[in-house]
Amino acid sequence: MADNPTAAILIIGNEILSGRTQDVNVKFIAERLAALGHKLEEVRVVPDVPARIIRAVNELRAAYDNLFTTGGIGPTHDDITSECVAEAFGVPWQKHQATWDALERHLGAENFNAARQRMAMMPRGAVPIPNAISIAPGFSIGNVHVMAGVPKIMQSMFGTLEQKLGRGTPISMRAVHGLRIKEGSIAAGLGAIQQRFPMLDLGSYPFYRESGGGVAIVAKGTDAAALDAAIAEAELLIVSQGITPVRGEPAI
Amino acid sequence: MADNPTAAILIIGNEILSGRTQDVNVKFIAERLAALGHKLEEVRVVPDVPARIIRAVNELRAAYDNLFTTGGIGPTHDDITSECVAEAFGVPWQKHQATWDALERHLGAENFNAARQRMAMMPRGAVPIPNAISIAPGFSIGNVHVMAGVPKIMQSMFGTLEQKLGRGTPISMRAVHGLRIKEGSIAAGLGAIQQRFPMLDLGSYPFYRESGGGVAIVAKGTDAAALDAAIAEAELLIVSQGITPVRGEPAI
């Protein structure tokens, strides 16, 4: 996976840090990035505070090939992502005429108030990311892709965006699990499999459910033959414990 | 909330970055921290890579009063949080005798293999965080609190830990919502309320559901009288739109 483009997600949202809202955007973006062959390397959540947003945008856009942000692009006082991204890039925050016109036409001039006009402001050079749900777009500037926090809108924006993103070799996962397996009993064997397949990431994840717990072994990587071979070895490791392995993830 | 202790969460887990696992630990810790009066200021998710973990631990423990980590403390090859925290603090990673003895007694000497012995290793000076589910503890060192990634075990560890954490003034939330409210129509009024209550964080969150969407207005802070007054003003703002406000969050 060394050649896959890298990515980070920045979640701008007091509502995640307060515990009000359960984030579901990371899992969605992570799965889609894996399918596109992009490697998600970091996620950060920061509050709606300009200095914090600007610093995180600049650190993450420098460190990774693409940065995806969610949240803070609506019309209210706590929606400050757009001007913060302009500041991070050192460019003016200005009217995006086509977006302005589209919003004014859709809402009617009498409803296109100062708050809503903020949604037509973008960093100079930004390219809108349309979506199927709201007239107000996200935008891309350089390697930074600014999306809504509302999952349905974000998902539509990501769908627009991914057609423009480059492709890496898709990152696949294979899994096998066994009931009553103890991690400590298979750790040495699993470590040995990882050493034989250095091009893969092998993980071991205990699961707990009413009908009985166990361990899932998950292999992740871009080499399909290696994935199949590693999971076959993981199956034998489970068999060596006197347990019947089951392909795939456990149903929870 | 300026006087509240600050906190960060570091999630160590390839399984979150790959999209395999939906994180639920942030919301749990965030809610409990708010009740304890600690202000969660940042969350990061990093992969199971030593340099990345060490750097994130050092940046976050320097920036905030407390750092809570989840994940990477089991017996397998990808469980490297403990030695990384030792490295971050520049102290030896060594046998914690009481934990070693407890694990050996519980498992039996014949099952206490090299992989499981790793769970009895801690940075020098660490204090175990017992839990009700597993014999293997988490640990605290300085202002860093290292917990399991499995939610049930993490939650039990946090329960142990919170008795030792200092208390700040609890951070409360109040909410009111209105159906068919448009954010753009109330943005100016809401911004004015925020200006009148600078000690609070006011947020506005659109919601979508089959029976009809709207907007929730949420106020967060430590000043109960201010919270009540701000939410009363938010109610009037909703009324001014010809909509009947409903106290609390919308049921989804």
UniProtKB/TrEMBL annotation, chains A, B:
Residues 8-168 form the MoaB/Mog domain. This is Competence/damage-inducible protein A. InterPro entries: CinA, FLAD1_M, MoaB/Mog-like_dom_sf, MoaB/Mog_dom.
